């Protein structure tokens, strides 16, 4: 059994180095594994499955080939690509997961999430998240003209950058109490997430016992992934 987890690649045409690293990762790491889980922010921005250019279609084709080889591919929404839909998943041979999701791993339940839900101290972001993820809002967004969606995406992106610069680092990290609440709610001793761009392994006391939280890194300066096999989990880093 060999399963891989990645997140926060933020793929875009302006960063061909990350795209090359991802394609190399598929050939050298993902080939022959049982499953690949992409835990959100796979793309830097996604304004709808109908807005795909050759770049996005090529990425889908690469994932489709991996899926066809026998590796199950799973996708989860992030805060950058929450409008990823069924059409892209069909193109990529991927299964779209809810956030959060529990999977079996080595006979134990493991909780997967993008990670933004855990940053509960960032009240303003959580409010915006609830608005944007509302099914009515999503329906409206998907039916806006493409040019309007592009304009809105640029506006939200700029607002996010400006807001991030003004917030304390602690606010944008996970809240430990929220982490414990999710682990207890889903009866899991292991949590894997991304979003915070702070790769590490943490331990939490949950209802009197120790639980593990594994954080994936973003693919800006290095390539990060978690590998799961019969021996357990390992967080790995490689140069782009």
Task: Please characterize this protein's 3D structure.
There is one protein chain. With 240 residues, the protein is an alpha/beta fold. 36% of the residues lie in helices and 26% in strands. It has a six-stranded mixed sheet. The longest helix has 21 residues, at 146-166. The protein starts with a strand and ends with a strand.
- Side-by-side strand order of the widest sheet: 4-3-2-1-10-11
Unreliable residue stretches: none
* Biggest sheet layout: 6 strands, mixed
Radius of gyration: 17 Å
> What is the overall number of helices?
7
| Overall 3D form | globular
Q: What is the arithmetic mean of pLDDT?
A: 94
Could you spell the SSE succession in H and E letters?
Answer: EHEHEHEEEHHHHEEEEE
Number of DSSP E strands: 11
What structural category do the secondary elements indicate? alpha/beta
Residue fraction in strands: 25-35%
Which helices and strands, and how do they pair?
Elements: E1 3-6, H1 16-30, E2 35-39, H2 54-68, E3 72-76, H3 86-92, E4 94-97, E5 101-105, E6 108-113, H4 123-133, H5 135-142, H6 146-166, H7 176-185, E7 190-193, E8 200-206, E9 209-215, E10 222-229, E11 232-239
Parallel strand pairs: 1-2, 2-3, 3-4, 6-7, 7-9
Antiparallel strand pairs: 1-10, 5-6, 8-9, 10-11
